[in-house]
Amino acid sequence: MWLISKGRFDLFGFTKEAYEFSPSILLWVLPMAVITTVGAITSHGSGASGPPGFTFTKLQTIVFVWGYASICEEIFVRGLLQTLLSSPAQVDAAAHQWLSMPVLVSGLFFGAMHILAFKRMGLAAVPVILLITFLGLVAAHYREKTGSLIPSIIIHALFNIGGSLPLWVTQWLRG
Predict the structure, then answer these.
(1) Among 48, 25, 26, CA closest to 171
(2) Phi, psi of 49 (to 5 degrees)
């Protein structure tokens, strides 16, 4: 990014731009929380969290999944990829539409990045990957509309939180 932009990180979303916090952004945690809660109640698996091949403790999940992954994945997909796909003319045209080409491509790419979930989850990964793709589209939309990575990082972190907290609560209730 530094080489491409000659040090202008604001071109890649490292700015507040037009983003103003609204409590409505917190609603994006609900879809993942509901689906995870239903899945946790109906499953009898170990409930380990983390990427395929790893088992994270709760603290590791908070640090690496809620924080690190949310920030790094958004910088890579929304900051770098989506910015490289966007031209100033596309950004102006996108002001009047919800699903521009850069939003669609970065959202689908984001979902494809998580295809490894099949290795760990089998066919149960299909709804998860669809939700992740939806998250990618929503985060890309907010990135495009605001010019900032802040809302996409917040939405990503909220989905990750909504995907693990209900599981932890149901595990705790089961004893």
Answers:
(1) 48
(2) -110, 165
Q: Where are the domains of the chain?
A: 29-36+58-174
Q: Which of 25, 18, 15, 11 is nearest to 145 (CA)?
A: 18
pLDDT, tens only, 93-116: 555 677 899 999 999 999 999 998
Q: What is the pLDDT of residues 4-58, one digit of tens each?
A: 777 788 888 888 877 887 777 777 667 666 766 666 566 544 444 555 445 788 8
- Phi and psi for 56 in degrees, rounded to 5? -100, 145
3-state secondary structure the chain: CHHHHCCCHHHHCCCCCCCCCCHHHHHHHHHHHHHHHHHHHHCCCCCCECCCCCCECHHHHHHHHHHHHHHHHHHHHHHHHHHHHCCHHHHHHHCCCCCCHHHHHHHHHHHHHCCCHHHHHHHHHHHHHHHHHHHHHHHHHHHHHHCCCHHHHHHHHHHHHHHHHHHHHHHHHHC
Tokens at residue 122, please? 């089998």
